[in-house]
Amino acid sequence: MAHTTLVSTAELAAHLDDPTWVVFDCRHDLAKPESGALEYAKAHIPGARFMHLDRDLAGAPTGKNGRHALPEPQAFMRKLGAAGVAANSQVVAYDAKIGVYASRLWWMLRWLGYENVAVLDGGYAKWINEGRSVTDAVTQPAPARFDGQARAMSVDADDVLRSIGRPGRMLIDARSPDRYRGENETLDPVGGRIPGSLNRFYRDNLDAGGCFKPAAELHEVFSALLGDTAPDAVVHSCGSGVSACHNLLAMEIAGLPGSRLYPGSWSEWCSDARRPMEKG
After folding, report:
1. Where do the DSSP E strands lie in 56-213?
2. For the chain, what is the domain count?
3. Domain limits at 105?
4. What is the value of pTM for the model shown?
5. Are 27 and 36 in contact (CB under 8 A)?
6. pLDDT digit string, tens, across residues 212-249
């Protein structure tokens, strides 16, 4: 059975010795960018490879393309191949708990046309709380050939600008409500939001234990938010195109596929003062 959205800790534990399962540790802290790599070096799920948000899951920032622009597809595919991801692999991504950085890797593989990728529900925290095995040994995977092709699953700033006020399009902002209002902005030089965007805080996709809420519950909430808007007319944004992937995954779990990502998000949008902005 292929896993394309979520995988449980029990299911992953049962496949730790399965060579077709490729696990990625995506732990990260925006305030301490090297903390994920340090934690990985101390202990990680056996067999896991490490993916760094800034170096592996993003391209180089220019000051105009946002904090986590998408990398060049061929370069990212080479990294996946070097990590042993092949055509028959079941990829599993995890982070510390809430799944934001794991969701970014999930989306990027889907962007390249790879379907058999899932996020570990509950992340490393749930794995540890259940007393499951960890190691500090670094896996040396056998390289594989990863063939993919970037799909039209994202939009750029010009597309977002053209869509403002246009019927039939919806922009959903995954940031916390205060940052959505333009308050307490600590990551970007300007606070605010893209005009017309609606707020769906990504943490609201999770239950008290840090796992995704049931599909039926997510379907009900997102359907109410979308109203008559089709899922494929939805674009997700956040601060830099990372937590927005959490909402993309939640909609997929809810059976509402087809929405797209604005990778530059607010960090790109606010870099040009000529673009319209809202607060409050």
Report:
1. 90-94, 117-120, 170-173, 198-199
2. 2
3. 6-129
4. 0.97
5. yes
6. 999 999 999 999 999 999 999 999 999 999 999 999 99
Q: Which residues contact 18 (CB under 8 A, 6 or more apart)?
A: 90
Q: What are phi and psi of 90, to 5 degrees?
A: -100, 110
**What are the start-end ranges of the H helices in 92-214?**
100-111, 123-129, 157-163, 177-180
Q: How far apart are CA 122 and CA 96, in angstroms?
A: 8
Whether 220 and 172 map to the same domain: the answer is yes
The DSSP letter of residue 91 is E
Q: What is the DSSP string of 236-275?
A: EE-SSSSTHHHHHHHHHHTT----EE-SSHHHHHTT-TTS
Asked if 52 and 80 count as a contact pair (C-beta separation under 8 A), the reply is: no
Residues with a known catalytic role = 238
224 membership: H or E segment, kind and range: helix 215-226
Whether 161 is in a domain gets the answer yes
Sequence-separated (6 or more) residues with CB below 8 Å from residue 143: 81, 82, 84
